[in-house]
Write a structure and sequence with these properties.
The chain is 62% helix and 0% strand. The chain is mainly alpha-helical. It has two domains: 78 residues; 35 residues.
């Protein structure tokens, strides 16, 4: 669905040069940053302002907006849904091992297989 939406707005993640991939990863990171800011505004984060309310419905929408851009980024990197799921499982295993070992020092090599 995301591939079709991207195509509809003129973005073909399958035919990008390296420079275009770089630009679109940056575009999607910036868009996700904005969506994260909108998600932040859905929760009462201003400890000094008493008028704020938690807007759970809007928070859900913002999470989905982030997901749209994250899926697009994965597509720019040539990742299918199965690729993302497989990488998630592998990274989750790394994170669990890090927690089991106390995660006292960063080891970039523990994620190279993902």
């Amino acid at each position: 669905m995301q591939r079709a939406l991207n195509a509809r707005i003129g973005v073909d993640t399958d035919a990008m040069s390296e420079a275009e991939k770089t630009q679109w990863i940056l575009n999607y990171c910036r868009a996700m940053s904005q969506e994260l800011a909108e998600l932040t505004d859905s929760v009462p984060w201003k400890w000094w302002a008493k008028y704020q309310k938690f807007d759970e419905q809007n928070a859900r929408v913002e999470v989905v907006d982030c997901l749209h851009f994250l899926i697009s980024m994965a597509q720019v990197l040539g990742m299918s849904a199965d690729d993302v799921f497989s990488a998630y499982l592998k990274k989750n295993e790394v994170n669990l091992k890090r927690q089991d070992s106390g995660y006292q020092a960063k080891d970039a090599e523990d994620s190279r297989h993902i």
